[in-house]
Specification:
Layout: H1 2-8, H2 27-39, H3 56-75, H4 79-99
Helix pairs in contact: 2-3, 2-4, 3-4
C-alpha cells in the first residue's frame, strides 16, 4: 500500500519504513515490560526474563514509542503528559543504553 501511495506522488516505489500496523509476535510482551518499568518502577533486571525473545531491544524501543505516543494522545494538555514523561525518562535511558551497546 505505501508503495502505491508514494508512486502516485512520483516517489520511488521501493520505499520501506516503520509501520505501526506490522506487529511482531514479541511486541505485546515488550509493551508489558515497558509499562512495568514505567508505572511499577520494576528494576531493569526484570528484562532478564525476556532474554530468549528475538530482537528484544528493538521491540522495547518500539514498545516505548507506542507507550509514549499513547500517553501524549490520551493526556494531551494535562499534567498527565509531564507525569508520563517523568516515568518514561529512565526507561528511555535504559532502552537507548541497550541499543547502543
Amino acid at each position: 500500500m505505501p508503495e502505491r501511495v508514494l508512486a502516485a506522488f512520483g516517489a520511488a516505489a521501493d520505499w520501506s519504513g516503520f509501520s505501526p500496523l506490522e506487529r511482531p509476535a514479541g511486541l505485546p510482551l515488550a509493551i508489558v515490560a515497558v509499562e512495568t518499568l514505567m508505572w511499577r518502577q520494576a528494576r531493569p533486571e526484570v528484562l532478564g526474563h525476556l532474554g530468549d525473545e528475538p530482537e528484544l531491544d528493538q521491540l522495547l524501543a518500539r514498545a516505548l514509542i507506542y507507550r509514549l505516543v499513547t500517553e501524549i494522545v490520551r493526556r494531551g494538555g494535562t499534567a498527565g503528559v509531564e507525569a508520563a514523561a517523568r516515568a518514561g525518562q529512565p526507561v528511555t535511558d535504559l532502552v537507548l543504553a541497550r541499543l547502543t551497546r
